[in-house]
## 1
Amino acid sequence: MNNRFYVTTPIYYVNDKPHIGHLCTTLAADVLARFYRREYGKNNVFFITGVDEHGAKITEAAKKENKSPKKYCDGLAKDFQKNWDRLNLSYDYFFRTTDSRHKKIVSKILKKLYKHNLIYKGTYKGLYCIGCEKFLTEQDLVNGKCPLHPNREPVYQNEKNYFFRLNKYEKQIKTALKNGDYKIFPPNKKHEILSKLELRLNDISISRAEVPWGIPIPWDKKQTIYVWVEALFNYYTATQFLKGKSQFWPADLHIVGKEISWFHNVIWEALLMAAKLPLPKKIFVHSFYISGGKKMSKSLGNVISPDDLINKFGLDGTRYLILSTFPYSKDSDITLEFLVEKYNSDLANGLGNLVQRTARLCEKKNYLKLHSVIKKLSLEKSSLLYSRLNNLEFNYVLEKIWKLVKKADTLIDREKVWNLPDKKAQKVLNQVINYILGIAVDLEPFLPETAEKIEKIFTAQEIKAPSKPLFPRI
Ligand code: MSP
């Protein structure tokens, strides 16, 4: 059994501040990293996230602010990191593609591919979407535009580029995927890739002649490496330039949104095959947060920012709301009204109220620890639970935990603890506290701060209700 876990998020473009689309992926990785740290130990887990800094899109954004690309990236990379820190995201390393160590490794790999004739010079003629940093085919277009960037005109390109022989790997990729050498989840995303692979796999352009903000092609400094190619390599290069991390490659899990599935499930594997490197074990492709039927994205101006949520719902309130609406297989259309409702019912009236009323009853009934409480996971660690968690079905796991909240609440109501004489009340309370402490352990990867607070309250010699409820009603 492999007792190590390496999880990654996409590295985000630094052309704007993060929104909840970025947050949901990073938070998903965070929950799994926290869960596996508990299982395998801190040093056996590696979780990276970061930013994608090169390319036309960033050059354009920097220009708008009258800054050099590097200065612009320095500012936004810091913003991203600050946001993630504010959300208590436990990444082990924050990746930046402007890191010279990354550049060096990518250049070396590309040189090797060139030497082995896996890269050749050709001419690229066609459309390009700067928003996606992606070459477009006729089939990609909706009303002549990129469907993810309907406000932008695709640009026509006709330039000499270097091409990667992607076609050479067509059969090998199909076989690897069918044999499970790498896995794509959920299954419908795997089928999507397999059916796309039935069409001819064309070679792809992997350099740009007109985009100076990037890593130069090592043998032709007039060109830079196509931003997607170098970005994909971040998952690997981090394990190579950071001390003591090389054993983490191949990654156990890449979590990505569905719009970048092709890059992660075909192009990435072909590049690794060409470089003779092991393939990642699993790629999880999640759906989108949408708003009014459209993908939530900065360019469409319909985003909810993590800050909006934290200011309203607090840190763990935000984590809960994102995780319980995580679009693991279907797009999730959320509105602020819906989130307020969910917050009030599950957190303010649910868990928060249970904690508050139990602690208050302990005060009233002169509860002193009768038996020592046992700190243990209350959810059964069944293989089903593991698979749900590994399939990012957080809502399923959270619902299970909330069943325990209900159970504890029902126990208090059924026994009418407030009417019982002290001794009898204390006995029931002891049982309730055991439930609550179990819930806290289960909750730790999801809501670490709340779990800690609950544990502190109920393991104290004298239990006191917190002066402010854990989740004030909105
Ligand atoms: N830089 C590339 C990724 C390179 S990885 C080698 C990129 N960056 S991005 O800033 O556009 O981020 C894309 C990722 O953000 C998606 O794959 C997804 O993880 C997340 N999301 C962005 N908008 C989203 C939603 N509306 N809903 C859910 N997640 C989405 O692509």
Note: The chain has a mean pLDDT of 93.
## 2
Amino acid sequence: MIRRYVFGNPIETEAVLRKPKAEQWEGDEQVLAFEANQTGFTCKLEQEDIVYGLGENVRGINKRGWIYVSHCSDNPNHQEDTRSLYGAHNFLIVSGKRNLGIFVDTPEQVIFDVGYTRPELLSVSMDSGNYELYLIEEASAEAVVQEFRRLIGQSYLPPKWAFGYGQSRWSYRTSEEVRQVARRFRENHLPLDMIYLDIDYMERYKDFTIDRERFPDFELLVEELKEQKIHLVPIIDGGVKVEAGYDVYEEGVKNGYFCKDEDGENFTLGVWPGKCHYPDMLNDEARLWFGRKYRFLLDKGIDGFWNDMNEPAIFYSEKHLKKVFEQLEEYRGQNLDICSFFEFCGLVQGISNNEEDYRSFYHNYRGERIRHDRVHNLFGYYMTRSASEAFEELEPGRRILLFSRASYIGMHRYGGIWMGDNKSWWSHLKMNLQMLPSLNMCGFLYTGADLGGFGSDATRDLVLRWTALGIFMPLLRNHSADGTRRQEPYAFGKGTEDFRGLIGLRYRLLPYLYSEFMKAALKNGMYARPLGFVWPEDPVARHTEDQLLIGESIMIAPVCEQNAIGRSVYLPEEMKLLRFRGTELTEERVLMRGLHFIETALDEVTIYLWKDHALPLAAGGETVEAVDWRKLALLRFGEAAAYELYDDDGMDSGVKLEGHLFPVQS
Ligand code: GLC
């Protein structure tokens, strides 16, 4: 059952497509132990309650015990105590004796205190108290998700080729370097479907330009790679460089499409190219204009994009920077003591993503001038919407790969997300696993983390273990930051056989993974579920934080620790262990319910098949296109186990389940 309440005068986010009629809030203390008013609400948590959801955030699948702030933030240095990441996903589920879904729909900052201040209390608050509240009560957490997802509409469908392996780096700086990456993959028979272009393909970091010195033959490069079935996927940044004569800048200025400061001037801030303006993605006309700019690259044969810096990130604002320079002057010649030294440092450290800056510019949203902080969490969402709506106009009915860094619920209809800048840390490998189901609950199905870690130096064993998890992520992309150690599969100088095997297994699993992804998208279901969704009565399963159910047939339990020879795996019921050394199945063994220590070498993956379920396996391939979807082996646990496969042409954006489900014969 869904109930909707409106408090104050909320700003429309267009997150919910089908709004039920709003009810009058009359208090719900009896049934839900829930109290709400215009500044927020509280909900009593029982000892046994798990709190699921909140999408992209630090910590576990169970969000209890921390405080999270929904505020899209560019924070590449996030750790366990970070409160905001790149996305703002205000949906959670209190799951225990009752299953209560809560969605707080407002584009402003929201604070979710999930038993941090008082362990028995979920307390949600925001500044203005203008919000829509949705309460969804169902018999199970999974049913809550399904109801919620019905409200917010179908998740984005990427093209089938986007389920292949993608190689990225900030940056492959020239056509030649890109060709070399392709060559190294093909020479080593490492499967590959995408190479990503980071900011250096552009001319001085200007959106919708190409640096012709580094990429003189861009169009030819796209074509050559296409012949090898490799898609080139360029980045698009939110900020437009201020530069006389640059068409995007000139048009934006002429038509008033940029965000304005208090005085009605174009708001100037610094990002990669130096001084920039942000297009007013919330303004319908500006959004349409910006989206149509993607045509520049579509016309060159590009069919995938990643949208970045759209929290929006602000390295500095012109005005604030000026002030800081003046203030710094005051410290010259001073004896910097304990206080003044830290004040001095704080001045510089506080320049980026400064809250004052977010309060100093304006949008024209639905005909109204609105200060940015009131709609902050919509920016990345509307940037991605801008591209997606333009694709629908320019290439109707065709799936284009699109994912974003910042997001809000509602954006899940227009694109996927990657999980932002992470680090080459074992803790971030585990967090990648934990974020996946939380994001699925919020509608984000096409997602994955920078495999191997973006910042800091990776080690070979970390990248291997991360690949062994990554092959189950819908978005599978190895990406790393400028200045860090190279982490392509061939970069560690030790042969590539183990990487070939792990990535190769992804291609053997593709028909299953794609089928399960599409079923989840078309049925508003979960692609990756926490164990507690299926075995809510089993306390161990409910509290298992490092295993996931992927689709209807399998469970995974990746190794997330350095130097581990394996790990303990909890089986809530009897399952069949499938051990793969690379692409080869080397062991099938039925294991009893309970805890098992399962040794897993760096080049191995273990999968746990449910009783009376089956897993289809293809022969594999080096590209998605090379995988033969018709020749599938069926691994069964139980004689009668069967599998119904979803398949389609991988390109049509309007597909339905009907007509695309096939029994697998084997
Ligand atoms: C941001 C992105 C990262 C990219 C870098 C340079 O940090 O999150 O993925 O490599 O910018 O464009």
Note: The first strand starts at residue 2 and ends at 7.
